[in-house]
Amino acid sequence: MAAPERIDVKIGGKLYDISTTLIPYFASYTDFQSHSGHTSQEHNEIPSFEAAYQGAEKGFRYCFRNLDTDLSAYHTLCDTLDFLRVDTLGGRSIDAIIEDLKSGEGHHETDYKRSDFMKGDKATARDSAFRLLYVILRGELEDDIATSQKFYNAVIFVVSHRAIFKYRARKMIRAAYEERISASKKQMATLDQWPVLAPTSTEWSDGEMTTEDSSSYELDSDNY
C-alpha cells in the first residue's frame, strides 16, 4: 500500500505534519512502521531537522532563517537533507541556479510608449541561493576554469546584491566558497569589495530590511 501524502510524525518531541513527497524518507519510514506492526509515529531526533523541514516544505530560503552563521551547521543540514532524500537541486545545473539567482532582479518591460517596472522574483532567487550553497558544499566540483568561473560569478552576484539576498545567505555562501573552491588573488580582491557585514541594530538578522542598491555586479567571464 502506498504511503499517505502527508503524515504526522513526532520528532525529538515535536509533532510535524510531513509531506512524504517532499521528504521521501518518511514514505519508507511509514511503510516500515506498517509492516513491522508499529503504530506509534515517533522518530528519534534528527540533526537540523527543523531547518530541513522548513526548507523542503516552504522553500529552501527558510533554511537560512533557521540556522545561525556557522558553516558547520550547514554541513550538518546538507547531510540531513540527503538522509531525508530531499530533492534539493531538482535537477538544476549551475547555469540554471545562476538563472534563478538573477530572477530576483527587477526589469522594465516596454510596450509601445509605456514602460512598466516588473519586480523580481526574490523568493525564487533566495531559494536558489541555498541551492548554490548546497552544491558548493556537496557537489563534485569540476576542476576546470569554465566551471570554476561560473561558481565565482554566482557567488559574486549573491554577495553584491544586498537588496535581494539577506545577510545569512551572503555570509554562508562566501564562507562555503572559500572553504571548497580555490580563488585567485584577483577574484578574492573583487569579493572583498563586497564585505558581508553583520546587520545593524535597525535590521533583522534573518531578513534585514534593505534599500534597493543601485550598484550591482554583472556576471562577466573576465572577472578573475
Mind explaining what this structure looks like?
- Helix 5 runs parallel beside helix 7.
- A hairpin with a 2-residue loop joins strand 4 and strand 5.
- The longest helix has 17 residues.
- The chain has 224 residues and is mainly α.
- Strands 2-1-3 form a three-stranded mixed beta sheet, covered by helices on one side. It has a two-stranded antiparallel ribbon with strand order 4-5.
Short summary of the structure?
This protein has helices at residues 25-35, 49-58, 61-66, 71-83, 94-102, 122-138, 145-159, 167-180, 185-191; strands at 6-11, 14-19, 42-43, 107-111, 114-118. With 224 residues, it is mostly helical.
Shape designation? globular
Percent of residues in beta strands?
Answer: 5-15%
- N to C succession of SSEs: EEHEHHHHEEHHHH
What's the alpha carbon Rg, rounded to whole Å?
20 Å
Terminal Cα span: 55 Å
Structural features:
224 residues; mainly alpha; three-stranded mixed β-sheet; two-stranded antiparallel ribbon; 9 helices; 46% helix; 11% strand; disordered C terminus
Secondary structure layout:
Elements: E1 6-11, E2 14-19, H1 25-35, E3 42-43, H2 49-58, H3 61-66, H4 71-83, H5 94-102, E4 107-111, E5 114-118, H6 122-138, H7 145-159, H8 167-180, H9 185-191
Parallel strand pairs: 1-3
Antiparallel strand pairs: 1-2, 4-5
